Amino acid sequence: MVISSILTCSINELNLRYSLTNGQAFRWRSNPEKSKWTGVIGKLVFSLQQDDIGNLLYTVHNPDNLDIKDSDQILEDYFQLKTSLTELYKEWSEMDEVIAKVIPKYPGVRTLRIDPVENLFTFICSSNNNIGRITQMVNNLCIKFGSKLTTVDDVDYFSFPEIEILSGKNVANTLRELNFGYRAKYIQKAAEVLLKEGGSDWLFGLRKQEYSEAKSKLLKIPGVGPKVSDCICLMSLDKTESLPVDTHVFQLVSKYYIPKLRNKKVNINVGLYKEIGDHMRKTWGKHAGWAQTVMFTSDLKNFQTAEESDGKKVTKEDKTEEEDEPKIKKQKRS
DNA sequence: GGGCCACCTTTTTC
DNA sequence: AGAAAAAGGTGGC
């Protein structure tokens, strides 16, 4: 038993490939044509497609007693479809000529509304890391500590692990063996601290609080610094003004917005981090974080044309993103 | 209190 | 080909 439905949408409001593979969510898998995406939202396994005008055709593979109204609602919520991206693109274009040049080439790049628990542990994995490897780590995390939901096209899909399970004493060791590196102990300790604070309910509760308050509370969690905290605020806690400053954003900002930073070897300290965020909030307004998502996406090499990439080559890592086959650890030959 | 630097591992760059 | 730097940073000194 599956259920299927159509959600009214358009290609300017949503581009699945951009929005699902630009480093917000890490668990979507596409068919070779990149026309159909399968992944997990909560405990449900969805397949998503768009018709030629952009309407969202979807299937839920393990609906149990789910009503179509509910599944519609889940997708509207996940993609935040109530917010008009067309309207935002227009506003940003009027405010800033830099973004005005970029966004026509990147329609439909939406900021997602991801489960905060999943987002927290995923972005703890993201430090000093690349999208290809983060994807692999998160998938391993779910396979190891999540529970199997269903199988689609011979691929098993798993729920995101419960906090209680991730707090287990052996988790850090197991994750070390799975090549999580120094992030292994952060994950286990973050789960412990999170449980002490009040678990999932506490995290979801941050949606009702001010940006600054939510952000500083997240900083109590091991492995969560200013940047990861902002990612959780932006992609899970409805803080549209939250603006994660990473290496990409720093490059973009120094190149186009704050010339004094150009060509300088600066490491981002607390003051500079805030300066950059404030500057871009002034430039882009209340949804500055959403604008940042678009700019970040335009800066990813695997989305750029040869001309845009400006010398940057499309690399193996980018291809990894595009591949269907799970990456198998290379074995040494004798 | 702020500026360094180590941290795991893989990929990319030079 | 092989070393070095970078990859959506953070914590500790």
From TrEMBL:
Protein name in the entry: N-glycosylase/DNA lyase
UniProt record, GO biological process: base-excision repair, AP site formation; nucleotide-excision repair
One function term, GO molecular function aspect: damaged DNA binding
Keywords: DNA damage, DNA repair, Glycosidase, Hydrolase, Lyase, Multifunctional enzyme, Nucleus
Gene source species: Dimorphilus gyrociliatus
Basic and acidic residues: bias regions: 309-319
The family this protein is said to belong to: Belongs to the type-1 OGG1 family.
Residues in HhH-GPD domain copies: 125-293
Reactions that this protein is recorded to catalyse: 2'-deoxyribonucleotide-(2'-deoxyribose 5'-phosphate)-2'-deoxyribonucleotide-DNA = a 3'-end 2'-deoxyribonucleotide-(2,3-dehydro-2,3-deoxyribose 5'-phosphate)-DNA + a 5'-end 5'-phospho-2'-deoxyribonucleoside-DNA + H(+)
